[in-house]
Design goal:
The complex is a heterodimer. By secondary structure, chain A is an alpha+beta fold. Helices cover 19% and strands 41% of the residues of chain A. In chain A, a hairpin with a 6-residue loop joins strand 6 and strand 7. Chain A folds into 2 domains: 30 residues; 136 residues, Jelly Rolls (Sandwich). The longest helix of chain A is centred in the first third of the chain and has 29 residues. The chains are: A alpha+beta, B mainly beta. Chains A and B meet through helix 1, strand 1, strand 2, strand 12 and strand 13 of A and helix 1 and strand 1 of B.
Chain lengths: 176, 180
């Protein structure tokens, strides 16, 4: 009798748990989450950039590029990371030139939440550092930052002629 | 009740994970740099005129002349040093003396390129049945870099008595070009 009673007492919470989970799942599934909180986005405002290096004793510095950060959720912790690899000679993939990123905040957003955490980073191919990342984060809301890309060809005594290219990839992640 | 809470936690974790994965978005921008070709060769100053000793039949060598070559061609450069005629008497061009060139590396090259001497020695032979009026020595590299070369130039004498008096001269031309 005690055993039966024990079984009876144990079954009720299990049923409640399963039912609760099911109800929650059905509720969550029925909610249009994209409408409630549109996904964030990140994009460069400018077009692809081109530069001709005439003075090989100075770094080639591109004009600062504006990136717009759209983070609709004003309360969601959001991280934006920009990553770059070394410049690569388009006709000789073995020829690399290190790249550098500089990041600054242009607009902190309505809540003033966008802050730069890693303002500068560079690649160093000779040490195996083939990516460089700069980072900004906020508690949510829109923002605008400026990214400056540098071509560090002046660090090499002889940079092969030709066209070099790299791509800055910006990634935004909103936790909630 | 405890299991119910765990169920809630599990469902929430799945939802949060899905939302985080869904929210990671990217944007890109491309940056291009053009590095122009930069190839050059630098000749030394013209050497001091040499005087052929009286009665000497020996070859008259000029001091080694150091040339500098550099290039940023990704496949390296080819360099030649040439004379297009033997030494010629300035007062009477019918009088000539053969010229001989010799090439060797001077110092240690800089940059990733490896430099190789192609033709180390060559001489004119104006008196041959088929006259050879030019001489060329050469070197090349396989990547970017800079190197210096010692170029030897010799005034070849066969018989001193056959050498008419006067001033003889020839011109060495250095040429560098990018390897294809």
């Amino acid at each position: 009798m005690d055993a039966t009673s024990t079984t009876h007492r144990g079954g009720s919470p299990r049923s409640l748990g399963i039912m609760g989970a099911a109800v929650l799942f059905l509720y969550v599934s029925s909610v249009d989450w994209s409408a409630a909180a549109p996904p964030p986005s990140i994009h460069a405002s400018g077009k692809p950039q081109s530069l001709q290096v005439l003075d090989t004793f100075q770094p080639g510095i591109f004009p600062e590029q504006s990136w717009k950060i759209v983070a609709p959720n004003p309360f969601g912790p959001t991280v934006a990371i920009w990553t770059v690899t070394p410049f690569t000679n388009l006709k000789d993939p073995k020829s690399f030139v290190d790249s550098q990123l500089n990041l600054r905040t242009v607009s902190h957003g309505n809540s003033g939440g966008w802050q730069v955490f890693v303002p500068q980073a560079r690649t160093t191919v000779t040490r195996g550092m083939n990516t460089a990342s700069v980072v900004a984060a906020s508690q949510g809301g829109h923002g605008e930052v400026g990214i400056t890309v540098s071509f560090l060809g002046h660090e090499q005594p002889f940079v092969s002629d030709g066209a070099y290219e790299t791509t800055v990839v910006g990634t935004i992640t909103e936790a909630f | 009740m405890k299991k119910f809470l765990w169920s809630l936690v599990g469902v929430s974790a799945v939802l949060v994970g899905a939302q985080v994965a869904h929210s990671a978005l990217t944007g890109t921008q491309t940056f291009s740099v053009v590095v122009p070709s930069n190839i050059s060769i630098t000749a030394p100053a013209s050497p001091t005129p040499m005087t052929l000793p009286d009665g000497s039949d020996a070859t008259l060598p000029f001091p080694a002349q150091t040339w500098s070559v550099k290039g940023n061609s990704r496949n390296g450069v080819a360099v030649t040093f040439a004379v297009s005629q033997p030494f010629v008497n300035a007062s009477d061009t019918s009088y000539k003396r053969d010229a001989r060139l010799s090439l060797s590396a001077a110092g240690t090259p800089t940059g990733p390129g490896v430099w190789t001497i192609g033709t180390a020695t060559d001489a004119t032979n104006y008196a041959a049945s088929t006259p050879d009026n030019d001489a060329t020595v050469s070197a090349s590299s396989n990547r970017t870099g800079q190197a210096s070369f010692n170029l030897g130039v010799e005034f070849l004498t066969v018989e001193n008595d056959e050498v008419a008096e006067g001033t003889y001269s020839t011109v060495v031309t250095g040429t560098v070009s990018a390897n294809p």
